[in-house]
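Field log, afternoon session.

UNIT: design team B
ACTIVITY: writing a sequence onto a fixed backbone
BACKBONE:
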């Protein structure tokens, strides 16, 4: 909202254009300004409303702090005309409106100056032998130290009366000293290893140059658990009889990462190939860069992946998905399966595929209890097309 005045007229505009114009000396203005809005009335008629933050008077931005004075200055300077031409009400109050600091819940300038002068001036005074020798008047910001020696009693001016509020003594009886902490740490092998960069060996017959925790644990890296072994720097073995024989990770009972960079997670899981991964009970990987995930899942081919219960990936670069998928290794590499998806069977001893793709691009599907090659169907379709064309020719002849 934009309000523009001259000595004798007023114009009020909003985003849509001019809203109201008239003589200033006959203009009776009341207004309401809750939060970020302002509403103007000509007597009892609404003439304009808008956001306070978008409103100006003769180029001056209106705010919650200046709206009273800005309107009062402009409209009270017009002709009297029997009392018109001025602000006649503010937020419902009529008559001659005079706002004080109390009306707007504000501090006076003197009160603000006094409070600012009291900021960050508190300090300790004394010590004094007794409170009787403390000079008056008492400073409301000072804390007075009273006594002949440390610890001193601390007094403050509370409602004009010196009152003891505490003592300068600090009770540290429940805290450890630095020497006490050091002595406790020296008895803790893990603390000592962290502090001195040495090995941690905890447990009967355990040995190692890294961290070995557990009966007969052996750790060049980290070995935690009975009979766990971590045989190389940066290797980790966690669990009873877990084995990490290279810079790998073995987690779980009898888990074994038997070569560099292998990961075996799960009871009896194992990998014996570089960068191999075996996850889940009895999962097994024997192909470099292979991944076996699932109960009894196994990967034998390099870069192969097996996902699912008893899933397999035997050929190089093969992917086997699903429970009990069937792997085909033909007399030539081209007949090997490259991608298989298992077909569910309640008989876990039966292995079959719903889909398989071989390296020679043959695609097989399981349909009507038989495994058929899709290319055969395409060939049969082409044969039928030829036969149909021959029949059409004969009929037409």
């Amino acid at each position: 909202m934009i309000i523009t005045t001259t000595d004798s007229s007023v114009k009020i505009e909003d985003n849509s254009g001019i809203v109201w114009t008239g003589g200033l000396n006959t203009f009776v203005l009341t207004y309401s300004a809750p939060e970020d809005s302002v509403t103007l009335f000509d007597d009892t008629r609404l003439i304009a409303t808008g956001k306070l933050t978008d409103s100006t008077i003769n180029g001056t931005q209106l705010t919650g702090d200046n709206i009273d004075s800005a309107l009062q200055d402009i409209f009270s300077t017009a002709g009297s005309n029997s009392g018109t031409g001025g602000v006649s009400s503010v937020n419902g109050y009529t008559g001659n409106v005079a706002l004080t600091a109390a009306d707007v819940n504000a501090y006076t300038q003197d009160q603000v100056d006094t409070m600012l002068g009291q900021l960050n001036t508190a300090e300790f005074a004394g010590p004094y032998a007794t409170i009787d020798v403390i000079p008056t008047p008492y400073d409301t910001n000072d804390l007075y130290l009273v006594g002949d020696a440390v610890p001193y009693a601390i007094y403050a001016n509370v409602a004009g009366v010196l009152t003891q509020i505490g003592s300068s003594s600090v009770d540290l009886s429940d805290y450890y000293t630095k020497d006490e902490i050091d002595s406790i740490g020296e008895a803790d092998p893990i603390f000592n290893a962290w502090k001195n960069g040495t090995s941690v060996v905890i447990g009967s017959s355990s040995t190692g140059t890294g961290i070995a925790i557990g009966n007969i644990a052996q750790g060049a890296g980290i070995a935690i658990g009975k009979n766990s072994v971590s045989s190389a720097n940066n290797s980790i073995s966690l669990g009873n009889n877990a084995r990490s024989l290279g810079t790998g990770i073995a987690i779980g009972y009898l888990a074994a990462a038997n070569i560099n960079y292998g990961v075996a997670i799960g009871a009896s899981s194992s990998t014996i190939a570089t960068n191999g991964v075996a996850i889940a009970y009895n999962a097994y990987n024997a192909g470099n860069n292979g991944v076996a995930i699932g109960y009894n899942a196994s990967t034998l081919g390099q870069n192969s992946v097996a996902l699912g219960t008893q899933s397999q990936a035997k050929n190089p670069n093969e992917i086997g998905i699903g429970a009990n998928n069937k792997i085909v290794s033909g007399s030539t590499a081209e007949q090997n399966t490259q991608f298989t998806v298992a077909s569910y069977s309640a008989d876990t001893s039966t292995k079959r595929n719903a889909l398989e793709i071989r390296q020679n691009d043959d695609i097989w599907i399981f349909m009507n209890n038989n495994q058929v090659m899709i290319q055969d169907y395409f060939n049969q379709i082409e044969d039928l097309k030829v036969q149909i064309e021959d029949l059409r020719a004969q009929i037409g002849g």
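LOG NOTE: The longest helix spans residues 374-396.
NEXT ACTIVITY: expression trials, pending approval
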